[in-house]
Amino acid sequence: MTSSCSWRDALDATAEGRATVEDGALLLREAPLFDLGRAADVVRRRLHPDGVVTYIVDRNINYTNVCSCQCTFCAFFREKGAPGAYVLSDAELSQKIEETLDAGGTQVLLQGGLHPDWGLADAVRLAKAVKRHPIRLHGFSPPEIWHFADRSGVSIAETISRLKESGLDSLPGGGAEILDDSVRGLVSPRKISWRQWAEVMREAHRQGLPTSATMMFGSIEAPEHIASHLVRIRELQDETGGFTSFIPWTFQAGNTLLSRDPRFGESRPSGFGHAIGYLRVLAVSRLILRNVPTVQVSWVTMGAKVAQLGLFFGGNDYGSTMMEENVVASTGVSFRMSEEEIVATIRDAGFHPRRREEHRCST
Which of 33, 39, 97, 127 has its CA at 20 to 30 Å from residue 159's CA atom? Predict the structure, then answer.
C-alpha cells in the first residue's frame, strides 16, 4: 500500500479500510479537526444508527499496587515493602464486590501490579474469590497474564485456560500504552513487548474470551507511533475478531517519573494530551478501526464535557461509573460521575443512554 499525498486522500483511504501508518499520521498532523469529527461521526452512525450511547455500572478493583514493572508513566505502583504498598485481603475484596452489587453493579474490573512473588496460583485464587459472588469478572491485562505465566513456568495458553475455568469472563486491554517497542523501551522498559501483548490477546480470542484494546497517548510518542498502534489493532482484529471495543486515553503526568523526564514537556513529539488533541486521536481511531464495534470516550481522564464532545468524534460508549478508580487518581486527576450524571450528559448531547450489563466496553 502506498501513502496518501494529502489529508483528503488519507481520509479516503480510511473509508476504504486501507489506511497506512503514513495516512494515519497525516490525518493526526494536518486534517482539520471538524473534518475529522464529521467523518468519524459518519462511521459511528453507520455502526450504531439507533443513536444509543451505552455505559456500565461497575467497579475497578486493584488487588495490589506492588509492581516490579515500575513504568515511568505510572504514579500508582509501589515497591514491595515500601510505604503505602498493599495487597487486598480476601475480606476486603469481598466487601468491595458486595458494595458493587448493592449499588446495582454487574461487573468488576480486576487489575493489579506485577507482584514479584505472585504466579498463576495467586491469580486463580483471586478469580475464584470474585466468582463466589454473582458478578462478571473482567480482569488481568496482558502484562499480568504474561507475568503469571512466566512466574509459574507455564504457557500463555494454559494460564488463560485455567483463569477461564476459574471464572474469568473477559480481558481488559491494559498494558498496551503504545504498541511500538521504541516507545515502550522509554516509558515502560520492563514491560512486555508489543508482540507479547498481541500474543496474549490472540490466545484469549482463540479460547473465546472477548477483550478490549486500549491506547495511552500524549507522552513522548510521535503521530506515527499512534497511527502504527491503530493499524496493529486493526490487523489483529482482522485476524481474530475478538476486540469488542477500543479505549484511547491520555497520559496523566502528575506524580510520575516521566513528568520529570527532560524528554517530556512542551516539545514532546505528539502533544495530544490536551482536549483538542484527544478529540483528534479519538476521531482517527474511529476512522481506522472500522472493524472494532465500539470506541469509548474517557471522562475519567478528560472530564465530562470533553467526553461528551467525544460522542460527536466517533465515541459511542461513555464507559463506567467507576465506583472506584485508583490508577488515574494517583496522578492527581479525580473526575467523578454518578450514573445519573452520565445519563444526563448523554441525553444533553442528543443521544439515548442505555445501561449495559456485559464487559463489552470496559477498559
Answer: 97
**Domain contains 6:** no
Count of domains for the chain: 1
- C-alpha to C-alpha distance for 40 and 282, rounded to whole angstroms: 9
13: in domain: no
Q: How far is CA 354 from CA 208, 214, 216, 294, 319, in A?
A: 26, 22, 26, 14, 11
- Chain segment 71-91, per-residue pLDDT in tens: 776 777 788 888 989 999 999
State the Cα–Cα distance between residues 265 and 68, nearest whole angstrom.
26
All three cell numbers of 192, joined, read 512486555
Cα 249 from chain centroid (whole Å): 7
Q: DSSP 3-state assignment of 160?
A: helix
Question: Per the domain annotation, does 189 fall within a domain?
Answer: yes
Please report whether residue 12 resides in a domain: no
Report CA-CA distances (Å) from 64 to 77, 103, 114, 134, 240: 9, 23, 8, 23, 31
pTM score: 0.91
Which residues constitute the domain of residue 212? 19-356
CB 178 within 8 A of CB 191: no
How far, in Å, CA of 296 to CA of 342, rounded?
13
Question: What pLDDT, on a 0 to 100 scale, did the predictor assign at position 70?
Answer: 78
